[in-house]
Specification:
A: 246 residues; alpha/beta; Rossmann fold; three-stranded antiparallel beta sheet; 7 helices; B: mainly alpha; 0% strand
Chain lengths: 246, 258
């Protein structure tokens, strides 16, 4: 196993009176690939916001390794995204280079070069001058991933990247993530783990509380016996469908 | 008349600069509310014998900070703006009533006196244009970030709260300064109508600002000239002209556009 990048201890948080996350513990290591599974409203997006320090937990501690500081890439759900905004693909991705220190200065050559490289990586270079509103769902998803990648993240957080996009685009996404998997830790929130059934190393099931499993518990012979919903295996009442490719 | 044309030109530039931000951030209602709070500040300033412009500034900046300081868009914000709006006007009316002698009334506040604009007013307006342009240029990337995706800007640890307050203050200052000359109704029109038209054509935020300013100028000038010949109120004519322009653009786009 790798070095510890991130550790959450006893995180409790809610937007109103009821907690959305309760006593959540989680450790993310280097080059990890964690599927964050759970129903809608279960706290997946909220957990990301806590990690990104967009909201502060009521209780609990977060430990960030020095490697991780400022190098968390975030790919939000694109369903709520501001598609109508007059901006090109290249500019949207370029904005991923902005941070607290450089937002008052101009973009450097390094910023632009990196943006071009990442656009080529995700296959959007030809579309770089188009409005983001003219992109398809899958293309917009890749644009958001590109935006997260331009700042060289060590940990990449993806929120429901396969929701509302077609199967072909989902497969493109899975391939892209397979490439990235060797370079950074990935945490992917989804309610449908099917596309990623061979990629992940750990599963974190979240529904207010978080239950962590390594892939070994779900793969191999155990999974061969279970053909459908491994409710008994995971034992906390959230039905999952985790099937191997066959 | 020349002064009026110049006043319209300068007002259009300011509104072209801030309008796209206000519209994109869905802050049109807030801007309206802030402007009417200005009226309250004006009234109190007159009554106290102070320069009304400063009274309005202080009042509006105070209101802007009150709004901007609250975290996120809380549920009560819409309600709060509505109350601020009504109370601002009411306070202004009472204090103006209590002030002896002649003071500009509500009509002047609503529609301004674009035809009686003085060279001093124009100088002030020109200064405003430079000031607003400078602030926007310096903070442009920051402003666009929070307008496009505020949550992402927070994730990148940008000073979102400060940028929000700065933007709001900028709106407040611009609106108050413009009210003096062209009245609040025209300010709201110049912030919204050109942007609504520009939205149909722009690929780029910068171009949207430029186009909005240009369209604002076009409507001001045609409106002023038409109102002169038809002898109808100038501010209202500009606005009606702009609205017609918007309908025409939308209709044209529906028939011929993509």
């Amino acid at each position: 196993m790798g070095a510890k990048l991130l550790e959450l201890q006893g995180i409790t948080f809610g937007y109103h009176r009821e907690p959305v996350l309760e006593e959540v513990n989680l450790t993310v290591e280097e080059k990890d690939f964690i599927l964050l599974l759970g129903p809608n409203g279960g706290g997946k997006t909220t957990l990301f916001k806590i990690i990104l320090e967009i909201v502060k937990p009521w209780q609990g501690n977060i430990f960030y390794s020095t490697d991780l500081r400022g190098r968390i890439g975030y790919v939000p759900q694109f369903v709520n995204f501001n598609r109508g905004f007059p901006i090109t693909v290249a500019e949207a991705v370029l904005m991923g280079r902005l941070n607290r220190e450089n937002y008052l200065k101009g973009y450097t050559k390094e910023d632009r070069d990196k943006t071009a490289d990442i656009l080529k990586l995700v296959g959007l270079y030809e579309k770089r001058k188009e409005r983001i509103g003219d992109l398809s769902g899958g293309q917009l998803q890749r644009c958001l991933i590109a935006r997260a990648l331009v700042s060289d993240p060590v940990l990449l957080l993806l929120d429901e990247p396969t929701a509302s996009i077609d199967i072909k685009s989902q497969m493109t996404l899975v391939d892209l993530l397979s490439e990235l998997r060797d370079e950074m830790s990935i945490m992917l929130a989804t309610h449908d783990p099917t596309p990623f059934s061979l990629s992940y190393k750990h599963v974190a099931c979240i529904n207010k509380r978080l239950y962590f499993h390594s892939a070994g518990e779900l793969d191999g012979t155990v999974l061969e016996r279970i053909y459908g919903c491994p409710v008994d295996l995971l034992g906390h009442g959230i039905p999952h469908t985790i099937l191997k490719k066959h | 008349m020349q002064n009026a044309l110049a006043a319209g030109l300068l007002a259009s530039i300011v509104c072209g600069l801030i309008g796209p931000f206000i519209v994109s951030r869905r802050m049109v209602f807030i801007s309206g509310g802030l402007s009417h709070t200005a009226f309250g500040g004006l009234g109190i300033a007159y009554w106290l014998g102070l320069n009304p412009l400063w009274g309005a500034f202080i009042f509006v900046l105070g209101a802007a900070f009150l709004i901007g300081w609250r975290e996120e868009r809380q549920k009560g914000e819409d309600l709060f703006i509505g109350i601020l709006w009504a109370s601002g006007v009411a306070v202004g009316i009472i204090f103006i009533h209590l002030t002896p002698g002649y003071v500009p009334d509500l009509m002047a506040f609503l529609f301004g006196n674009i035809l009686t604009v003085s060279p001093q007013d124009l100088k002030l307006e020109a200064l405003l244009v430079v000031f607003v342009a400078l602030v926007i240029i310096v903070f442009f990337r920051g402003f666009v970030s929070i307008t496009f995706d505020e949550e992402y800007a927070k994730a990148r640890k940008m000073p979102v709260k400060s940028l929000n307050l700065l933007m709001l203050s900028l709106f407040a200052i611009s609106i108050v300064a413009l009210i003096q000359m062209v009245g609040i109704i025209l300010v709201i029109a110049l912030i919204t109508i050109p942007v609504a038209i520009a939205q149909e054509f722009s690929v780029d935020f910068k171009k949207m600002m430029f186009l909005s300013a240009l369209l604002g100028m076009l409507f001001c000038w045609t409106g002023l000239i038409v109102s002169y010949f038809l002898e109808i109120p100038s501010g209202a004519t500009i606005i009606v002209g702009g609205t017609l322009g918007l309908f025409f653009t939308k209709g044209w786009k529906r028939c011929y556009g993509r």
